[in-house]
Amino acid sequence: MRSDCPVNYGLEIFGDKWSLLIIRDLMLFGKRTYGEFLCSKEGISTNILASRLAFLEKEKIVTKARDPQHKQKWIYSLTEKGIDLLPVVINIGLWAEKYAPKLNPNRDIIIGAVKKHYGRGIAAIRKKLYSQHIKKQGTNQFK
Amino acid sequence: MRSDCPVNYGLEIFGDKWSLLIIRDLMLFGKRTYGEFLCSKEGISTNILASRLAFLEKEKIVTKARDPQHKQKWIYSLTEKGIDLLPVVINIGLWAEKYAPKLNPNRDIIIGAVKKHYGRGIAAIRKKLYSQHIKKQGTNQFK
Predict the structure, then answer these.
(1) Cα–Cα dist A11/A85, whole Å
(2) How many CB pairs under 8 A join A and B?
């Protein structure tokens, strides 16, 4: 740890653009597998993806479990600690949407809901992530 | 630009831990000069600091002006675009404060105000940053 500042603490864990892009994929794009992360437009390389996923798992931001349908495949889920990064990701999006308004026609649905009412918008996405990633650790978990 | 996603757009500009630490120094620690940034506990190197400051200036997140008291010295200010990163920085701090609660006794004042009432806390810090960095582009600007 380079210092005792909480902002630095956070940045040492996820302050790397690739880590935050993987977290974004899990949060906003519904991606759950190595192959899906690899196909993201930003073109992450296999070695960076593998090392970032291992680090995020070590830091308990994501967990992985065997896909019940394809036993050789891992499904990644956000933990509560990971879901708690939602306001960081959303606020990066809100900032970018203000300063680069021509980007991202598809993300307007998400950003729009949060812009309309910040607290309620965040709560709605958080609830959805909880049900998709954390609740029901059974067969419905990945639906 | 690697993709048209706004989160990626933001990360391409400030998604580097050193850039966000400089922005944190300006926002929360009242640092305004190259020498002050250089003394931060995280130990940024001179070449990284100079290149990040130049990039943040190019992206209009910070501006610099000669110190009226010491003409050879530059004083850095956040622009409105820079101040708008406040929710990103604060939410990194809030997350870290939850998951590493033993850090940062001195930051409790800032984090405490935002935790008590998110919207009001952010608005109060933003107002202070505006008056210190943007309003009164005269002699009182750096007081």
Answers:
(1) 12
(2) 139
